[in-house]
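Q: Convert this sequence to structure tokens.
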Amino acid sequence: QYFAVRAASAQARSVYGRSLPNVSAGISGGVTSNYSEALDERFTDPTYSLGVDASWTADLWGRVRASIEASEADLAASEADLASARLSLASQTAIAWTDLNEAVAQERVAIQTFEARNRILSLTERRFARGLVDSLDVRLARSAVASAEASIAARSQARENATRRLEILLGRYPGNEIKAPGTLPELEPIQAAGTPVMLLARRPDVAASEARVIAAGLRAEQARLAVLPNLSFSASVGTNETDFADLFDPTRIAANAIASLAQPVFNGGALKADKAAALANAEAVLSSYVANVLLAWREAEDAIAADGYLAQQVEAQARALDEALKA
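A:
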């Protein structure tokens, strides 16, 4: 996304530069050869030419301005995409670190469960040897130990996968080298997030979609104005001499200036098709914007609702943990 922003910035400067007058200059040198029949002799003379050309198209109807503003909107969308990518990377990294610590803790619990069930198996086998339990209890205890052993392998795999996922997000080789303590940080209570509308105002992906709607609308306006006349100005000065020093003699320089007003008459329906394509693209971008806003609203509503439900789960889990420890 960083390079996309740089490309959009360069494109915006390019569009603006094309709206300014275009000036070009050139100088050339050569040799002319002429034959004189009267003198029966060929004459060779050097020739030099100097020319400066300038042209500019007046923005009578605002078509050029629409093009510039559209490119600026594209730049704003790219910058918002970059901000969204940075935010997404930060959030994914935080989630990956949380998942890794959870996986480490779950692996630790699986090992403790295996050890506990192994002790139970030893007790059950001793009771079986004394005739206090039957073989069914022994088989069930052995099955529980095997299940706990399988759970350790599954939890170890989950921990390694979480480690490699975090390493990729950090731009490192997925070598399963990051070590995590298996504990989660104590976070401060979540402050009031505000209404979904307030949350949307801070989302860069929504800002990017809005900027693209603006750019598409401006390009549709640009296509609509393309059928109107163009007023252009051009001017040139130049000289052609056999003596290089005479090139810069003001008395030898010739100049001309032209103003023209051109109205498209027939182009095979190309301009009309461009207008239809621009309008269709604007409608498509607008539809995408609506979909993005609805998705963002849903995510905001889900997050606000989840905050309350997760708090209830935490409270219930805390009571369950307390009872389990007492048991």
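The longest helix spans residues 63-129.
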